[in-house]
Amino acid sequence: MGDVILTTPLLRVLRRRHPGAHLVFCTRPAFAPLVSDHPALDDLIVFDPDEEPLGTLARRLRAGRFTHLLDLHGVLRTRLLRLMVPGRWRGYSKRRVARTALIRLKRDLYLDRVPEAERFFEAAGGLDVKPDGDPPDLHVAPAARERAEAWLRQHGLGGTPFVVLAPGAAHFTKRWPAEHWHALARQLGRDGREMLVVGGAGDVAVGDDIARAAGARVRNAAGLFSLQETAAMLARAQAVVAGDTGVMHMATAMRAPVVTLFGPTVKAFGFAPYRAPGIVLERDLPCRPCSAQGGPACPLGHHRCLREIPPIDVLGALSRWTA
């Protein structure tokens, strides 16, 4: 999800520099809502690799007769597509050697600190584009915005400031401990702050636990809304607390200030909040980073990288926008 959102600065600049071009974006069904309403795009190709053979996508791309093909994924599947679809393909450097050296050897071989959103511009070499300095952008359809606003009004948040809590993450090691979320929510409640928990279906139980720990000031919207509807809610937030996850990037795209908790990953990978109000909280530990995307368990069994970020630090960071 974060990767798709971080492509939008490139989409925006391509459209501005080449207003007559026909721009088409290809992604999985789950992520299509993130770009389906983007004004820079003329068309969207939705491809499900779990349901369709790669040859089906290759035929669609060949039929498109594209003059330029930008590989913004850089995985085996897209490398195979390059062989199956003749054309002017370009990709970008994922800094794999530097990333592996930092994870395995704890040696920083990064020669730059270019954010991932700007690395994508390497794939557009020859198209005369460069980053415009603005954050990602996510465009929400009116129906999605209206449904989100109706739910917020129904739950007493129509015109009330609130803080969004996003406790979920695809991998366990990116999740801030549950007791920290509970303590944070209790203190925010004592301070008179209203809160909204967002996330997917897998985050419903943790959202319910936060609500039980902190009381009536917490509303749990996890598992109830689409990506666009969730984005509409983030746009209304005073601030967002999230891990190094897609919700964090969604918050930046909706111009919501975000406090981000980095554990197994580090900013050198390129995925910190991009060109938007944000604070990254992390601990300088000799075991960090331990993976590129997180994992099912801490390799050393202590999970200090996130356990040692206390709720008081998050409260302090939030005070910049909620005081």
Features:
323 residues, alpha/beta, Rossmann fold
Task: Produce the secondary structure layout.
Blueprint: H1 2-6, H2 8-17, E1 24-27, E2 43-46, H3 54-64, E3 69-70, H4 76-84, E4 89-90, H5 96-105, H6 116-119, H7 142-154, E5 162-166, H8 178-190, E6 194-197, H9 204-214, E7 218-220, H10 227-235, E8 239-243, H11 246-253, E9 258-261, E10 278-281, H12 304-307, H13 311-322
Parallel strand pairs: 1-2, 3-4, 5-6, 5-8, 6-7, 8-9, 9-10
Helix pairs in contact: 7-10, 8-9, 8-13
What can you see in these coordinates?
There is one protein chain. The two termini are 31 Å apart. The protein is 37% helix and 11% strand. The strands form 3 sheets. Strands 7-6-5-8-9-10 form a 6-stranded parallel β-sheet, sandwiched between helices. The chain has a two-stranded parallel ribbon with strand order 1-2. α8 (178-190) crosses α13. The chain has helices at 2-6, 8-17, 54-64, 76-84, 96-105, 116-119, 142-154, 178-190, 204-214, 227-235, 246-253, 304-307, 311-322, and strands at 24-27, 43-46, 69-70, 89-90, 162-166, 194-197, 218-220, 239-243, 258-261, 278-281. The radius of gyration is 20 Å and the shape is globular. It has 2 domains: 2-124, Rossmann fold (3-Layer(aba) Sandwich), CATH 3.40.50; 142-322, Rossmann fold. The protein has 13 helices and 10 strands. With 323 residues, the chain is α/β, with parallel strands linked by helices. α9 links the parallel β6 (194-197) and β7.
